[in-house]
Amino acid sequence: MNDLLKTTDLGLYCSAGGFYVDPQRPVDRAVITHAHADHARWGCRHYLATSSCEQLLRMRMNEDAEFQFLPYSESITINGVKVSFHPAGHMLGSAQVRLEYRGKVAVITGDYKLGSDPTCDSWEPIACDLLVTESTFGLPVYRWDDDQIITDSINAWWRESRDDGKCCVLYGYAVGKSQRLLAGLDPTIGPIYTHGAVEKGTDAYRRSGITLPTTTYVGSITGKHDWKGGMVVAVPSAHGTPWMRKFGRVSTAMASGWMAVRGTRRRRSVDRGFVVSDHVDWPSLLKAIALCDPEQVWVTHGYSAVVARYLQEQGRDARVIDSRSRMEDDEDESH
Fold it and tell me: Which top-level group of life is the source organism from (predicted)?
Protein backbone atom coordinates (compact mmCIF):
# COMPACT_ATOMS: atom_id res chain seq x y z
CA MET A 1 0.00 0.00 0.00
CA ASN A 2 3.04 2.30 0.15
CA ASP A 3 2.49 3.70 -3.35
CA LEU A 4 -1.09 4.51 -2.41
CA LEU A 5 -0.58 5.89 1.08
CA LYS A 6 2.20 6.18 3.62
CA THR A 7 3.01 8.23 6.69
CA THR A 8 5.66 10.95 6.59
CA ASP A 9 6.81 13.85 8.79
CA LEU A 10 4.50 16.09 6.75
CA GLY A 11 1.49 13.79 7.13
CA LEU A 12 -0.23 11.20 4.95
CA TYR A 13 1.37 11.07 1.51
CA CYS A 14 0.22 9.44 -1.72
CA SER A 15 3.52 8.92 -3.53
CA ALA A 16 1.90 7.66 -6.75
CA GLY A 17 -0.29 10.78 -6.92
CA GLY A 18 2.30 13.21 -5.57
CA PHE A 19 0.00 14.83 -2.98
CA TYR A 20 -0.64 14.92 0.76
CA VAL A 21 -3.93 14.46 2.60
CA ASP A 22 -4.39 17.06 5.37
CA PRO A 23 -0.65 17.86 5.54
CA GLN A 24 0.71 19.07 8.87
CA ARG A 25 2.82 21.78 7.21
CA PRO A 26 2.63 23.68 3.90
CA VAL A 27 3.18 21.50 0.81
CA ASP A 28 2.83 21.91 -2.93
CA ARG A 29 -0.37 19.85 -3.36
CA ALA A 30 -2.86 19.22 -0.54
CA VAL A 31 -6.07 17.21 -0.55
CA ILE A 32 -8.23 18.56 2.27
CA THR A 33 -10.88 16.69 4.26
CA HIS A 34 -12.44 19.85 5.76
CA ALA A 35 -11.79 23.49 6.57
CA HIS A 36 -10.76 23.33 10.25
CA ALA A 37 -7.31 24.81 10.74
CA ASP A 38 -5.68 21.59 11.96
CA HIS A 39 -6.61 19.88 8.68
CA ALA A 40 -6.48 22.75 6.19
CA ARG A 41 -3.05 24.24 6.76
CA TRP A 42 -2.33 27.77 5.58
CA GLY A 43 0.46 28.18 3.00
CA CYS A 44 -0.02 25.27 0.58
CA ARG A 45 0.23 26.14 -3.12
CA HIS A 46 -2.69 24.02 -4.38
CA TYR A 47 -5.76 22.78 -2.49
CA LEU A 48 -8.27 20.14 -3.58
CA ALA A 49 -11.47 19.94 -1.51
CA THR A 50 -15.23 19.44 -1.83
CA SER A 51 -17.38 22.00 -3.60
CA SER A 52 -19.43 22.59 -0.44
CA CYS A 53 -16.20 23.42 1.41
CA GLU A 54 -15.35 26.31 -0.92
CA GLN A 55 -16.69 29.28 1.08
CA LEU A 56 -15.09 28.09 4.32
CA LEU A 57 -11.76 27.22 2.75
CA ARG A 58 -11.43 30.50 0.88
CA MET A 59 -12.38 32.34 4.08
CA ARG A 60 -9.28 31.19 5.92
CA MET A 61 -6.61 30.57 3.25
CA ASN A 62 -3.99 32.76 1.58
CA GLU A 63 -5.36 34.67 -1.41
CA ASP A 64 -2.62 33.53 -3.79
CA ALA A 65 -3.36 29.82 -3.22
CA GLU A 66 -4.77 27.73 -6.08
CA PHE A 67 -8.07 25.96 -5.40
CA GLN A 68 -9.86 23.09 -7.06
CA PHE A 69 -13.25 21.89 -5.84
CA LEU A 70 -15.00 18.61 -6.54
CA PRO A 71 -18.61 17.57 -5.81
CA TYR A 72 -19.18 14.56 -3.58
CA SER A 73 -18.80 11.18 -5.34
CA GLU A 74 -17.28 12.66 -8.51
CA SER A 75 -13.70 11.59 -9.16
CA ILE A 76 -10.53 13.06 -10.58
CA THR A 77 -7.42 11.11 -11.62
CA ILE A 78 -4.07 12.44 -10.45
CA ASN A 79 -1.03 10.62 -11.90
CA GLY A 80 -3.07 7.42 -12.17
CA VAL A 81 -4.66 7.71 -8.71
CA LYS A 82 -8.45 8.02 -8.69
CA VAL A 83 -9.50 10.53 -6.01
CA SER A 84 -13.04 11.18 -4.81
CA PHE A 85 -14.76 12.81 -1.83
CA HIS A 86 -17.59 11.29 0.20
CA PRO A 87 -19.59 12.87 3.06
CA ALA A 88 -18.04 12.65 6.52
CA GLY A 89 -20.83 14.32 8.54
CA HIS A 90 -18.35 16.36 10.62
CA MET A 91 -19.28 19.84 9.36
CA LEU A 92 -20.18 21.66 6.14
CA GLY A 93 -18.01 20.36 3.31
CA SER A 94 -16.30 17.68 5.38
CA ALA A 95 -15.27 14.62 3.42
CA GLN A 96 -13.74 11.21 3.51
CA VAL A 97 -11.04 10.93 0.86
CA ARG A 98 -11.17 7.78 -1.28
CA LEU A 99 -8.00 6.83 -3.15
CA GLU A 100 -7.89 4.04 -5.73
CA TYR A 101 -4.72 2.81 -7.39
CA ARG A 102 -3.92 -0.50 -9.10
CA GLY A 103 -6.98 -2.22 -7.67
CA LYS A 104 -6.45 -1.09 -4.07
CA VAL A 105 -8.65 1.39 -2.22
CA ALA A 106 -7.73 3.53 0.78
CA VAL A 107 -10.17 5.79 2.65
CA ILE A 108 -9.09 8.60 4.97
CA THR A 109 -12.03 9.58 7.18
CA GLY A 110 -10.71 12.92 8.41
CA ASP A 111 -12.94 13.97 11.31
CA TYR A 112 -16.38 12.39 11.07
CA LYS A 113 -19.58 11.55 12.86
CA LEU A 114 -22.53 9.28 12.14
CA GLY A 115 -26.14 10.42 12.16
CA SER A 116 -28.02 13.31 10.57
CA ASP A 117 -27.17 17.00 10.85
CA PRO A 118 -29.10 19.83 9.14
CA THR A 119 -25.88 21.75 8.52
CA CYS A 120 -23.98 19.09 6.52
CA ASP A 121 -24.26 15.89 4.49
CA SER A 122 -24.38 12.65 6.47
CA TRP A 123 -21.51 10.16 6.66
CA GLU A 124 -21.54 7.28 4.18
CA PRO A 125 -19.73 3.93 4.56
CA ILE A 126 -17.17 3.14 1.84
CA ALA A 127 -15.78 -0.34 1.24
CA CYS A 128 -12.00 -0.25 1.22
CA ASP A 129 -8.78 -2.19 1.71
CA LEU A 130 -7.32 0.39 4.09
CA LEU A 131 -9.26 2.68 6.43
CA VAL A 132 -7.52 5.56 8.17
CA THR A 133 -9.80 6.61 11.04
CA GLU A 134 -9.65 9.23 13.76
CA SER A 135 -10.25 8.16 17.38
CA THR A 136 -10.66 11.47 19.22
CA PHE A 137 -13.27 9.90 21.52
CA GLY A 138 -12.09 6.32 21.25
CA LEU A 139 -13.07 5.14 24.73
CA PRO A 140 -16.25 3.29 25.81
CA VAL A 141 -17.16 6.18 28.16
CA TYR A 142 -17.91 8.39 25.16
CA ARG A 143 -21.47 7.70 23.99
CA TRP A 144 -23.64 10.48 22.57
CA ASP A 145 -27.34 10.95 23.24
CA ASP A 146 -29.77 11.51 20.38
CA ASP A 147 -29.44 15.02 18.92
CA GLN A 148 -33.05 15.90 19.70
CA ILE A 149 -32.54 15.18 23.39
CA ILE A 150 -29.59 17.58 23.51
CA THR A 151 -31.39 20.23 21.46
CA ASP A 152 -34.39 20.09 23.77
CA SER A 153 -32.12 20.38 26.81
CA ILE A 154 -30.37 23.47 25.42
CA ASN A 155 -33.67 25.19 24.61
CA ALA A 156 -35.08 24.31 28.05
CA TRP A 157 -32.01 25.86 29.71
CA TRP A 158 -32.49 28.97 27.59
CA ARG A 159 -36.15 29.31 28.62
CA GLU A 160 -35.31 28.86 32.30
CA SER A 161 -32.54 31.47 32.11
CA ARG A 162 -34.80 33.90 30.23
CA ASP A 163 -37.50 33.54 32.87
CA ASP A 164 -34.85 34.23 35.51
CA GLY A 165 -33.88 37.48 33.77
CA LYS A 166 -30.53 36.20 32.52
CA CYS A 167 -28.72 36.15 29.19
CA CYS A 168 -27.46 32.76 27.99
CA VAL A 169 -23.95 32.35 26.59
CA LEU A 170 -23.36 29.06 24.77
CA TYR A 171 -19.79 28.19 23.83
CA GLY A 172 -18.86 26.20 20.73
CA TYR A 173 -16.16 26.20 18.09
CA ALA A 174 -16.57 29.11 15.66
CA VAL A 175 -16.91 27.04 12.48
CA GLY A 176 -18.98 23.86 12.45
CA LYS A 177 -20.05 23.41 16.05
CA SER A 178 -21.58 26.88 16.43
CA GLN A 179 -23.63 26.56 13.25
CA ARG A 180 -24.89 23.16 14.33
CA LEU A 181 -25.92 24.69 17.66
CA LEU A 182 -27.63 27.61 15.91
CA ALA A 183 -29.63 25.21 13.73
CA GLY A 184 -31.10 23.62 16.85
CA LEU A 185 -32.06 26.81 18.69
CA ASP A 186 -35.73 27.81 19.03
CA PRO A 187 -35.88 31.50 17.94
CA THR A 188 -39.31 31.92 19.55
CA ILE A 189 -37.60 31.91 22.96
CA GLY A 190 -35.70 35.13 22.34
CA PRO A 191 -33.14 36.94 20.17
CA ILE A 192 -29.97 35.15 19.07
CA TYR A 193 -26.60 36.92 19.03
CA THR A 194 -23.20 35.84 17.75
CA HIS A 195 -19.59 36.44 18.68
CA GLY A 196 -17.55 37.92 15.81
CA ALA A 197 -15.74 34.67 15.00
CA VAL A 198 -19.04 32.76 15.03
CA GLU A 199 -20.69 35.36 12.80
CA LYS A 200 -17.93 35.02 10.21
CA GLY A 201 -18.40 31.26 10.00
CA THR A 202 -22.19 31.61 10.02
CA ASP A 203 -22.03 34.00 7.06
CA ALA A 204 -19.97 31.43 5.11
CA TYR A 205 -22.56 28.75 5.93
CA ARG A 206 -25.39 30.96 4.70
CA ARG A 207 -23.52 31.74 1.49
CA SER A 208 -23.16 27.99 1.02
CA GLY A 209 -26.95 27.57 1.16
CA ILE A 210 -27.40 26.42 4.77
CA THR A 211 -30.54 27.77 6.46
CA LEU A 212 -29.97 29.11 9.97
CA PRO A 213 -32.11 31.24 12.30
CA THR A 214 -31.73 35.03 12.25
CA THR A 215 -28.75 36.22 14.28
CA THR A 216 -27.34 39.60 15.30
CA TYR A 217 -23.60 40.19 15.52
CA VAL A 218 -22.82 41.39 19.06
CA GLY A 219 -20.34 43.95 17.75
CA SER A 220 -23.01 45.64 15.65
CA ILE A 221 -24.92 46.76 18.76
CA THR A 222 -23.87 50.14 20.15
CA GLY A 223 -24.98 51.97 23.26
CA LYS A 224 -27.05 50.48 26.05
CA HIS A 225 -28.83 47.24 25.23
CA ASP A 226 -31.03 44.85 27.19
CA TRP A 227 -29.52 41.39 26.77
CA LYS A 228 -31.93 39.62 29.13
CA GLY A 229 -33.60 36.61 27.53
CA GLY A 230 -31.13 36.46 24.68
CA MET A 231 -28.86 33.66 23.54
CA VAL A 232 -25.25 34.50 22.67
CA VAL A 233 -23.30 31.85 20.74
CA ALA A 234 -19.61 32.46 21.37
CA VAL A 235 -16.22 30.78 21.17
CA PRO A 236 -14.80 29.14 24.33
CA SER A 237 -11.89 31.61 24.49
CA ALA A 238 -14.39 34.41 25.24
CA HIS A 239 -15.22 32.88 28.62
CA GLY A 240 -14.07 35.01 31.54
CA THR A 241 -12.92 37.91 29.37
CA PRO A 242 -13.98 41.57 29.71
CA TRP A 243 -16.15 41.05 26.60
CA MET A 244 -18.58 39.07 28.77
CA ARG A 245 -19.36 41.96 31.11
CA LYS A 246 -21.68 43.69 28.68
CA PHE A 247 -24.28 40.93 29.00
CA GLY A 248 -24.99 41.50 32.70
CA ARG A 249 -26.33 38.46 34.55
CA VAL A 250 -25.51 35.41 32.50
CA SER A 251 -25.84 31.66 32.51
CA THR A 252 -22.98 29.98 30.65
CA ALA A 253 -22.73 26.57 28.99
CA MET A 254 -20.17 24.61 27.02
CA ALA A 255 -21.14 22.32 24.13
CA SER A 256 -18.46 19.67 23.70
CA GLY A 257 -17.90 15.93 23.66
CA TRP A 258 -15.55 16.41 26.60
CA MET A 259 -18.59 17.29 28.73
CA ALA A 260 -19.25 13.54 28.90
CA VAL A 261 -16.44 13.24 31.46
CA ARG A 262 -17.30 14.19 35.03
CA GLY A 263 -15.33 17.16 36.24
CA THR A 264 -14.77 18.79 32.84
CA ARG A 265 -17.60 21.30 33.32
CA ARG A 266 -16.15 22.27 36.70
CA ARG A 267 -12.70 22.81 35.18
CA ARG A 268 -14.25 24.96 32.48
CA SER A 269 -16.06 27.03 35.15
CA VAL A 270 -19.37 27.06 33.27
CA ASP A 271 -22.89 26.62 34.64
CA ARG A 272 -23.98 23.88 32.26
CA GLY A 273 -22.34 21.31 30.03
CA PHE A 274 -23.99 19.82 26.95
CA VAL A 275 -22.48 16.72 25.35
CA VAL A 276 -22.36 17.74 21.69
CA SER A 277 -19.59 16.42 19.46
CA ASP A 278 -18.92 16.42 15.74
CA HIS A 279 -16.81 13.26 16.08
CA VAL A 280 -17.76 9.60 16.33
CA ASP A 281 -18.34 8.20 19.79
CA TRP A 282 -17.20 4.70 20.75
CA PRO A 283 -20.19 2.75 19.35
CA SER A 284 -20.22 4.78 16.12
CA LEU A 285 -16.50 4.31 15.62
CA LEU A 286 -16.84 0.54 15.83
CA LYS A 287 -19.94 0.61 13.62
CA ALA A 288 -18.17 2.64 10.95
CA ILE A 289 -15.22 0.23 10.85
CA ALA A 290 -17.56 -2.76 10.61
CA LEU A 291 -19.53 -1.18 7.74
CA CYS A 292 -16.41 -0.28 5.76
CA ASP A 293 -14.87 -3.69 6.61
CA PRO A 294 -11.27 -2.92 5.61
CA GLU A 295 -8.39 -5.37 5.53
CA GLN A 296 -6.25 -2.86 7.44
CA VAL A 297 -7.11 -0.06 9.87
CA TRP A 298 -4.78 2.81 10.67
CA VAL A 299 -5.85 4.72 13.78
CA THR A 300 -4.89 8.33 14.41
CA HIS A 301 -5.59 11.14 16.92
CA GLY A 302 -6.90 10.81 20.45
CA TYR A 303 -7.08 7.34 21.97
CA SER A 304 -5.51 5.61 18.98
CA ALA A 305 -3.55 3.02 20.99
CA VAL A 306 -6.68 1.91 22.86
CA VAL A 307 -8.70 1.59 19.67
CA ALA A 308 -5.96 -0.23 17.77
CA ARG A 309 -5.48 -2.73 20.59
CA TYR A 310 -9.23 -3.37 20.81
CA LEU A 311 -9.45 -3.95 17.05
CA GLN A 312 -6.48 -6.33 17.20
CA GLU A 313 -8.24 -8.30 19.92
CA GLN A 314 -11.24 -8.53 17.59
CA GLY A 315 -9.01 -10.04 14.89
CA ARG A 316 -8.44 -6.95 12.74
CA ASP A 317 -5.13 -5.81 11.30
CA ALA A 318 -4.87 -2.45 13.06
CA ARG A 319 -2.07 -0.08 14.04
CA VAL A 320 -1.43 3.42 15.32
CA ILE A 321 0.04 5.90 12.86
CA ASP A 322 -0.15 9.15 14.84
CA SER A 323 -0.43 9.50 18.58
CA ARG A 324 -1.03 13.26 18.74
CA SER A 325 -3.79 14.13 21.19
CA ARG A 326 -5.90 17.14 20.25
CA MET A 327 -7.79 18.82 23.06
CA GLU A 328 -10.32 21.59 22.81
CA ASP A 329 -7.86 24.09 24.28
CA ASP A 330 -5.92 23.91 21.01
CA GLU A 331 -6.81 25.76 17.82
CA ASP A 332 -9.18 22.97 16.85
CA GLU A 333 -12.05 23.31 19.31
CA SER A 334 -14.42 21.28 17.15
CA HIS A 335 -14.83 18.35 19.53
Answer: Bacteria
- What's the CA gap between 186 and 190, in Å, rounded? 8
Instruction: Using pLDDT thresholds of 50, 70 and 90, give the confidence band for residue 66.
Output: very high
CATH of the domain at 56: 3.60.15.10
- Tell me how far apart the alpha carbons of residues 183 and 195 are, in angstroms, rounded to a whole number: 16
**Rounded to whole angstroms, how far apart are CA atoms 250 and 36?**
29
Q: Answer yes or no: do 58 and 182 share one domain.
A: no
- Tens of pLDDT, residue by residue over 219-247, are 999 989 999 999 999 999 999 999 999 99
Nearest CA to 200 out of 3, 103, 55 is that of 55
Same domain, 189 and 235: yes
Domain boundary, last residue among 254, 274, 294: 274
* Cα atoms in the 13 Å half-sphere on the side-chain side of 208: 27
Query: Domain range for residue 182?
Result: 147-274
What integer is the mean pLDDT of 260-274? Answer: 81
The domain tally of the chain equals 2
